[in-house]
Write a structure and sequence with these properties.
The chain is an all-alpha fold. It has 5 helices and no strands. It is 81% helix and 0% strand. The longest helix is centred in the middle third of the chain and has 37 residues. It is elongated, with a radius of gyration of 18 Å. It starts with a helix and ends with a helix.
């Protein structure tokens, strides 16, 4: 049981590092944010967090349901923001590929990519908030 908890905790921390690390690494970029890494990190965080909550419920002590509920809600919002950003970025890239295949010349349009910026900052920023809640509460 201790090994499983340690494995899940390591997975949870890897997911957090993927989210927060990607946020800090690409925070100032105007385009080409890596939503794939954000989505993988959010998925790892959400799934391992649910499993850790289940282990806490099965244990002897009483977990802090308020804290874990707030962290779970934030994790769902992070996952949805990363998923929406990933799907929109995929659609933009698919449209650009079809235009270039048709012979159109694409001028770098940063304005289209900048529309993804709120999703990137929401996913990374809320992951950071979730990390701070875990540490200070």
């Amino acid at each position: 049981m201790d090994f499983l908890q340690s494995l899940l905790l390591a997975t949870h921390l890897i997911g957090a590092s993927l989210l927060v690390g990607t946020l800090f690494l690409q925070m100032r970029a105007k385009a080409a944010h890596n939503f794939t890494i954000m989505l993988v990190g959010a998925s790892l965080q959400l799934l391992s967090g649910i499993a850790l909550y289940g282990l806490a419920m099965a244990g002897d002590g009483e977990p802090n349901h308020m804290k874990l509920g707030i962290k779970g809600l934030i994790a769902v919002v992070v996952f949805v923001a990363a998923l929406i950003g990933f799907l929109r970025q995929k659609a933009i890239r698919k449209e650009r590929a079809s235009l270039t295949a048709g012979g159109a010349q694409i001028v770098a349009d940063v304005a289209v990519e900048r529309k993804l910026l709120p999703f990137f900052h929401a996913a990374g920023g809320l992951a950071l908030v979730n990390l701070l809640i875990a540490v200070f509460w």
